[in-house]
Amino acid sequence: MAPTAIDPTIIDVIQPKKDSLNLPSESRKRLEKAEIDLSGGYPYRPAKPLYLQDVQKIRETYREYNDPGARADPAKSALFAAAERVVDLTTHIGTEVVGLQLKDLTDRQKDELGLLIAERSVVFFRDQDISPQQQKSLGEWYGEIEIHPQVPQVPGVDGVTVIWPELQATESKASFRRPGGASRWHTDLVHEKQPAGVTHLHNDTVPTTGGDTVWASGYSAYEKLSPDFRKIIDGKKAVYRSAHSYLDRDDPTAGPKYVERTHPLVRVHPATGWKALWVNRAMTERIVGLDKAESDVILHYLFEVFEKNIDIQVRFKWTPRASALWDNRITIHNASWDYEGTQPRHGTRVTALAEVPFFKDEAPTRRQALGLATED
């Protein structure tokens, strides 16, 4: 599916900065092997949109979406037969596939990988030889690639964003007490009309110690709630906001404002049909229809269900050239900054946009669908 281009004529911008940081050697080798043009500087930094109204216009058109996982063989026979091993890292979330190269997957295997991600929330592959272009091509299988209006990107490959903490520190310096950035529980692009589905992060350079990423399962977070409490939040909607703020063209003196969108608190995944809790502390603002005090109490509890139940989380120790593919519709994640910038870290990320979030009261939980222990 072709990406939606951002029309520069509709956007008032803050001009980008020139970056002069040194690329980690392994990252440079990967980019040069992929024939990425680094002569104009790295990364490419789009001019930052200034006004809220311009950002709101970028993706207002509805896009039809069909989840590839919904057409996959439930047994995933093509994917599993080609792998050396498939290892579930925890009971509820996280699977590592050994012995496959993502760039070489067949169409059938890509569908089955989509279903595996939908069922297991996040899937890991180590020792991947994959270029930014191949990473984007794989991402396009799972939906329209998100082209962010302002984050750093690989030059010449729109939609492949650069995850480079050293670069991010030039704008917002992290510290031990306030690591900031991705070091908080969140999920990506919740402010979109059709938010993120599958994200693929490939790290070509990682610290020797630390820098792990943690994911938590939205399926299991929902199942941690009592059946009576679920009735309180089923069908409710919340306001979700963007990570970046902008000025209101109609009232620029009012200060920065966020893009806001209303979506269900509990959503159903189109490939599995299972219910998942869909809130995150960083970007879920309030529950529609409740007073602020009521909303704050319920949201704080839901955030803690996600964050404090370690049995519904998986922590991944990165190695060079590892890839993680996760489903933003059914997870939240948090990147550890315990290495405190003492060693380089660099990767590229591709995110496919998915469906308009929806809720179905009759949809089962994951445990119900799999015939697991009765929920108390």
Compact overview of the structure:
This protein is of the alpha+beta class.
End-to-end Cα distance, whole Å, is 44 Å
- How many β-strand runs? 18
**Can you count the helices?**
10
Shape verdict: globular
Protein architecture, described:
- It is a single chain.
- By secondary structure, this protein is of the alpha+beta class.
- It is built from ten helices and 18 strands.
- The strands form five sheets. Strands 3, 4, 5, 6, 7, 8, 16 and 18 form an eight-stranded mixed sheet that branches. A three-stranded antiparallel sheet has the order 15-9-17. Strands 11-10-14 form a three-stranded antiparallel sheet.
- The chain is globular, with a radius of gyration of 20 Å.
- The N terminus is likely disordered.
Break the fold down into its secondary structure elements and pairings:
Layout: E1 13-14, H1 25-33, E2 48-49, H2 52-57, H3 77-82, E3 85-88, E4 95-98, H4 107-120, E5 122-125, H5 132-141, E6 144-145, E7 161-163, H6 165-168, E8 196-205, E9 213-217, H7 218-224, H8 227-233, E10 237-246, E11 257-264, E12 266-268, E13 275-277, E14 284-287, H9 292-308, E15 313-316, E16 322-327, E17 331-335, E18 346-353, H10 366-370
Parallel strand pairs: 4-5
Antiparallel strand pairs: 1-2, 3-4, 5-16, 6-18, 7-18, 8-16, 8-18, 9-15, 9-17, 10-11, 10-14, 12-13
